[in-house]
């Protein structure tokens, strides 16, 4: 950790850059600052001298220290934003020329289908390609068990609202979880129960009790690279989940949205274990392809096919033929496998760098997820004494965007003070600079929560 002098310097510098102390405004006296921070006069004198060397403040003989004019501060206020909040790929990482070629080819090959309403379940030729992709993850459905959706959000919305063969009505979700699933459940006013998921996993005693006694229709889980935690279930966890679901006639909706980013060849999904008859395996393509294509695919148990066919047809008649055609051509040409491999390497490198930098620069108590082994997300845990909304705003003012996880909890469930960090629109340099700023603002927030109020807001 930095020594006290450096910490105080960063806090006052942040006050200036964020506009809490205006250009031309006089700074508090050296004596007032020493009382505010509980340090010696010499420490504050050293801080002011260093800020003066950085051209942030200047001294007037017998008058004190003042913030420099706005024009001199402008370069500090015009820094490029550091985006830890986005979950959509950087356009620069997407081979748009390849997609245009696939789109043109799709217009040619699927011209007849464009003028009809195709199979609501999806183009058979694409479903056959999806079967091959799923087989690489040790998921072995028939083409008849594969459904193509207009994005994973549509799949979640339909599954949440439709009846299931087990005749049960309640839905169990991890807490926290993907906000889109909670939104789908909220709009349909489903009865939803939350179960805590920590970096160490889930409470198995509570899970089994819910499965046995709470009329659970399905359990929604993100076993791989959880959003927002970033953690994954172990092989033993996945097998246990599959067996519990089958034994208690509870379906599992397995959201494997980042399967393409897995670096461990032995990390199979829940569907691969005993109990696949009760697992709905859902895959999205938005993290390695264009989110605007709005394509997702699922492998479902045979018992669900008739019900899901009807609900899919009622929702949109059919998923866009052009989007399906683009994905099919992209997959058949080998471009998908090539691009996914590149994205996996890039994202894996970034998330590891985030973990290393976080361990080096952030206090240990902030590292909520310390075992990140891939994916896009990690979480920072803030003490209850820190105002998360205020910290997010301060980071925003300094050009760093992060996501508070309030919307990833049920309204009735106790919320953790978490910030989600995404590496999808970053690089090594940006990650290091962003974590450094977060560390500075975290330290500043700690001073805020512990300092006497009259000495803080000046």
From TrEMBL:
Keywords: Aminotransferase, DNA-binding, Pyridoxal phosphate, Transcription, Transcription regulation, Transferase. It comes from the Bacteria. Residues 2-70 form the HTH gntR-type domain. SUPFAM superfamilies: PLP-dependent transferases, Winged helix' DNA-binding domain. GO terms for molecular function: DNA binding; DNA-binding transcription factor activity; pyridoxal phosphate binding; transaminase activity. The keyword Transferase applies. Its cofactor is pyridoxal 5'-phosphate. The keyword DNA-binding applies. In the C-terminal section; belongs to the class-I pyridoxal-phosphate-dependent aminotransferase family. This is Aminotransferase class I/II-fold pyridoxal phosphate-dependent enzyme.
């Amino acid at each position: 950790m930095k020594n006290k002098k450096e910490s105080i310097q960063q806090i006052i510098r942040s006050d200036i850059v964020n506009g809490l102390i205006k250009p031309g405004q006089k700074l508090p006296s050296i004596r007032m600052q020493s009382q505010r921070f509980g340090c010696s006069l010499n420490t504050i004198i050293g801080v002011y001298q260093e800020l003066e060397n950085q051209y942030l403040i200047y001294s007037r003989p017998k008058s004190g220290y003042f913030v420099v004019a706005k024009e001199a501060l402008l370069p500090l206020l015009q820094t490029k934003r550091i985006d830890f909040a986005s979950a959509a790929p950087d356009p620069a990482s997407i081979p748009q020329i390849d997609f245009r070629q696939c789109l043109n080819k799709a217009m040619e090959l699927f011209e007849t289908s464009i003028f009809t309403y195709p199979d609501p379940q999806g183009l058979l030729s694409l479903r056959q390609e999806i079967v091959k992709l799923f087989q690489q993850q040790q998921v072995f459905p028939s083409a008849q068990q594969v459904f193509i959706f207009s994005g994973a959000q549509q799949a979640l919305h339909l599954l949440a609202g439709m009846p299931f063969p087990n005749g049960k009505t309640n839905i169990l979700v991890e807490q926290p979880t993907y906000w889109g699933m909670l939104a789908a459940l909220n709009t349909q006013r489903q009865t939803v129960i939350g179960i805590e998921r920590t970096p160490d996993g889930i409470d198995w005693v509570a899970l089994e009790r819910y499965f046995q006694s709470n009329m659970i229709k399905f359990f929604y889980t993100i076993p791989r690279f959880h959003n927002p935690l970033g953690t994954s279930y172990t092989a033993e966890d996945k097998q246990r989940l599959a067996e519990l679901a089958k034994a208690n006639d509870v379906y599992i909706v397995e959201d494997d949205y980042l399967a393409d980013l897995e670096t461990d060849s032995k990390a199979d999904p829940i569907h691969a274990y005993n109990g696949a008859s009760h697992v709905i395996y859902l895959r999205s393509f938005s993290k390695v392809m264009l989110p605007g294509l709005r394509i997702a695919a699922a492998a479902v148990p045979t018992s669900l096919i008739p019900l899901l066919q009807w609900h899919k047809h009622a929702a949109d008649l059919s998923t866009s033929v052009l989007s399906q055609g683009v994905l099919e051509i992209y997959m058949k040409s080998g471009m998908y496998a090539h691009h996914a491999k590149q994205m996996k390497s890039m994202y894996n490198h970034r998330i590891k760098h985030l973990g290393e930098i976080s361990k080096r620069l952030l206090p240990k108590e902030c590292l909520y997820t310390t075992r990140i082994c891939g994916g896009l997300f990690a979480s920072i845990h803030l003490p209850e004494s820190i105002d998360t909304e205020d910290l997010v705003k301060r980071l925003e003012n300094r050009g760093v965007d992060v996501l508070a996880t309030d919307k990833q909890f049920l309204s009735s469930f106790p919320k953790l003070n978490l910030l989600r960090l995404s590496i999808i629109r970053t690089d090594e340099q940006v990650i290091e600079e962003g974590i450094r700023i977060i560390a500075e603002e975290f330290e500043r927030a700690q001073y805020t929560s512990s300092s006497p109020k009259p000495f803080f807001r000046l």
